[in-house]
Design a protein that fits this description.
Layout (H helix, E strand, L loop, with lengths): L1 H33 L8 H12 L2 H34 L1 H16 L2 H12 L2 H25 L3 H10 L4 H39 L5 H10 L3 H30 L1
Amino acid sequence: MTQLKKKSLLTSTSLSTLSIFVVLIIWQLYSIQVSNPFLMPSPIVVFQDLIVLLSDGHTYYIIFVTLSRLIISVMAASILALFLGILAGIFHQVESFLKPIVVTLRTMPIVSVVVVVLILFGNTFSLYLISFLLLFPIIYQAELEGIKNIPRDLLDVLSLECNKYPVMVVKMVYLPLALPYFKTGMLQSAGVAIKVLVVAEYLSQTQISIGRELYFNRINLEYANVFAWTIILIIIVLVLEYIIQKYINAIQK
């Protein structure tokens, strides 16, 4: 069985590596066909620019600033979503009241949210608010589902024992049993949030941001740098998703 798993892993890795080479070959061929390094830089040129960016300390400062905005937004959305998710799980009136708001936020096109918030609140604060509005319904729904999945018999018994202390029921039952759902929702939303955050940075042209770097290099026709920053962003998202998945797996064990 172990040998089969190793063989399957080797096959999967080989195919993934092959797909990357296929993409690079297509990219190189298309670059040759366009024959204009400004419009379509070759993979080698982009890789060279990527090395230059990664060797510059300012690049890491820009990444740090963008990730700081992401962390603040995640924390704000998580605290409010945790509080309201517990209330909605306990009181169906709260769930009914919040349902139209949550559904609207979940279904509204992302570009509409970005543009409207930028118009209403300006550039800097909007970055946090946009990420918050995207994250809140995801985390809230996860917490709500966690509360609803708690066995009713357990709640009834503990409610009788802790009837005079409802706060103890929340602390001893609701929080521990719903926590895995909450963590999963919070972590899964982070990978999506950074993509939206960079779009908001791009549209608002926020100083010191990945989005600003993409915008600045685009208008200056430095498309190799655009590709290089895109690769950096892909790496960041992949690392975040890897950490998230490892953490989720640890929670579920």
